């Protein structure tokens, strides 16, 4: 049975609601499900809790949801590229829960694995530990972090077969696999959609059991957050 939908809007139409938790894969503008994010923007849902490594930049990526006033809370590890994010946070219009990057990845992985909580040394003795249970193991203090389960996960894959088995490309493999497992409903935007059996079993990163819906991504230019290349020197 195929899981392919005709459009991002169709894939999201009956699962979006105000106040839901949305986990989104990618890193800044790299490896993000841009078409699905745009469809969330167009839907008009509000008061979202967004779980993602960061919120993109102003006007691009998850930044479009901030511009539309659709986000009530963010759980992220880095937000430094988005001026609007800072403005909304400082104005008290946006609740923010900072989570160290490795901890955030593990919280998503734990949620997808059915693990409600775990202990880590990261953040002990800092603001991150405030209000969280502490425990000593072998003479070392650890803090408890909760697993994250999202109502809907949005994922970008390089290749998907119609059954939902996924392959990622390069650094899109950072947060997308753990986001894929952490959603009660996981919707995937794939650059290439193939038939079952066309992906080598050993190449599958996310098994199709975690994926409910798939859409074909549009051909769009890859946005770059910051260009750090030097001007090309003209040969004499």
Sketch the major β-sheet: 8 strands, mixed
* Overall helicity: 10-25%
Helix and strand composition category: alpha/beta
Count of strand segments: 11
- In N-to-C order, the SSE pattern is HEHEHEHEHEEEEEHEE
Shape: globular
Helix count from the secondary structure assignment? 6
Radius of gyration: 19 Å
Overall pLDDT, averaged?
Answer: 94
Q: Catalogue the unreliable spans.
A: none
User: Distance between termini?
Assistant: 62 Å
- Strand fraction equals 25-35%
Structure described in brief:
It is built from six helices and eleven strands.
Describe the protein's architecture and organization:
- By secondary structure, the protein is of the alpha/beta class.
- Helices cover about 20% and strands about 25% of the residues.
- Helix 5 runs parallel beside helix 6.
- It has 6 helices and 11 strands.
- Strands 1, 2, 3, 4, 8, 9, 10 and 11 form an 8-stranded mixed beta sheet that branches.
- The longest helix has 13 residues, at about 100-115.
- The chain is globular.
- Helix 2 links the parallel strand 1 and strand 2 (about 50).
């Amino acid at each position: 049975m195929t899981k392919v939908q005709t459009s991002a809007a169709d894939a999201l139409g009956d699962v979006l609601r105000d106040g839901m938790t949305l986990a989104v894969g990618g890193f800044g503008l790299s490896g993000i499900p841009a078409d699905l994010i745009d469809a969330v923007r167009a839907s008009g849902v509000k008061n979202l809790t967004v779980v993602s490594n960061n919120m993109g930049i102003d006007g691009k990526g998850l930044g479009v949801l901030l511009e539309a006033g659709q986000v009530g809370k963010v759980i992220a590890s880095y937000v430094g590229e988005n001026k609007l994010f800072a403005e909304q946070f400082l104005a008290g219009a946006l609740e923010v829960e900072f989570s160290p990057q490795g901890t955030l990845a593990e919280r998503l992985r734990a949620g997808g694995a059915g693990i409600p909580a775990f202990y880590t040394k990261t953040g002990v003795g800092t603001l991150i530990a405030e209000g969280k249970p502490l425990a000593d193991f072998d003479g070392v203090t650890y803090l408890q972090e909760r697993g994250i389960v999202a109502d809907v996960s949005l994922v970008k894959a390089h290749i998907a077969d119609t059954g939902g088995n996924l392959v990622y490309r390069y650094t899109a493999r950072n947060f997308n696999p753990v986001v894929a497992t952490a959603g009660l409903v996981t919707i995937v935007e794939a650059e290439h959609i193939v038939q079952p059996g066309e992906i080598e079993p050993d190449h599958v990163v996310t098994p199709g059991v975690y994926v409910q819906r798939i859409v074909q991504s549009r051909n769009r230019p890859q946005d770059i957050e910051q260009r750090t290349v030097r001007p090309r020197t003209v040969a004499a």
